[in-house]
Write a structure and sequence with these properties.
The chain is an alpha/beta fold. It is 22% helix and 23% strand. It has a domain at 38-143: Glutaredoxin, CATH 3.40.30. 33% of the residues are buried.
Length: 156
Amino acid sequence: MNTPLAIPCPHCGALNRVPAERVGERPQCGRCKQALFAGHPVELTTTNFDAVAGRGDLPVLIDFWAPWCGPCRTVSPLVERLGREHAGHLKIVKLNVDDAPAIAGRYGVQGIPLLVLIQDGAERDRLVGAAPLAQLQAWLTPHLTAPGGPASTSPR
């Protein structure tokens, strides 16, 4: 029997329990009725960052970026594609470092774009700088498993 996954809503922060075999069926939040997986990265703020990125059973890929950053604009569509390809296996969120310097400081952001993969509240890996899609996929794939299964916990 599959244990339900705890998935925080990117809109209201409510923690939802979703059977692992149903995460691919576009589940909705029990509180606000919006999609738990929007098909694109969700923009977080200092207000909702910990409620959405810091909880849940799925790995979370955080895209630290800024609107003035050219390489960030290059990586953004690639990160969106990863979000679509791995919906139900991964939660992808974005954080504008100019709007949330305290959170950027907490994660030791010294250069952007920066992708940080966290699970169970701990950082598992990070990738600094713009990278092509193939490199992003190769970096991310070892950390992902089928919904409900454990993700790799060894940092690279």
